[in-house]
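Format notes (please read before filing issues)

Several people have asked whether sequences and structure tokens are stored in separate files. They are not. Every record keeps both together, in the order shown below: the sequence lines, then the token lines. Line labels are part of the format and must not be stripped during preprocessing.
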Amino acid sequence: MKKIASKPAWLKVKAFQGKSYDEVNRLLRGAGLNTVCQAANCPNRGECFNRGTATFMILGSICSRGCRFCNVEGGIPQEVDPNEPIKVARAAKSLKLKYIVVTSVTRDDLDDGGAGHFANVIYALRAELPESKVEVLTPDFKNKTGAIEKVIIAQPDVFNHNLETVNRLYPVVRPGANYQLSLDLLKKVADESPILTKSGIMVGLGENFDELKQLFEDLASHKVKSLTIGQYLAPSPKHLPIEKYYHPNEFEQLKEIAVSCGIPIVFSGPLVRSSYLADQINSQL
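Then the structure lines:
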């Protein structure tokens, strides 16, 4: 295995501190809620918490898969909290959020993969914050019958499902997932509703530009309108190694290629993550 260079300067972030950061932390802890910001060790959480925003992570904190790129703990998932939808809605109201992002751990153990719980969270948010926009970042629900339809019926403003990486790397990076299934899921949402579809990927896992171009073409042909591209950062030595640090100029190149392939909105940069500045990015459509 080649030795990767130390983390470049453009990937360094400020320490997590500030009044708003502390207030968001206290509110979330008091409500007994999880965020992907903390669970996935997101490098932007200091900035986002200080902006008074967070990405809610529902259905517990234990993932039924445990992919080797992700910092979310894998294992036996917890019981689903039936009161979680209203807890999320009340927390979002306390934070005065105009744009709310909700994601989850993967729950292959549930009959619908957790789709019904996503729907209930959307309904609760609509009741508490009728003027706010809602983006969901969902797992693939293991293609369980009727699952995605529950989310479509609940009508989030944005449906996000991450491809994460190129097709060739799925067996290593996403062993419990299927590249084509994820594409088909996104297309189904676009075909059956006016919901904006979105996806996200990481780079630095060993992919090449030709493979990334094919991924962009696949997303465009499956009607995805918004895409995030960010640098993979290994959460620990036990996770997949970083094969390459992309320079900011290369992220600009990737954005240009993705747009040329037919994806209208592309947010590409070293520290870009799926829900980072989502309110500002998707307002362009």
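For reference, the curators noted about this record: The first helix runs from residue 19 to 31. The CA atoms of residues 209 and 254 lie 8 Å apart.
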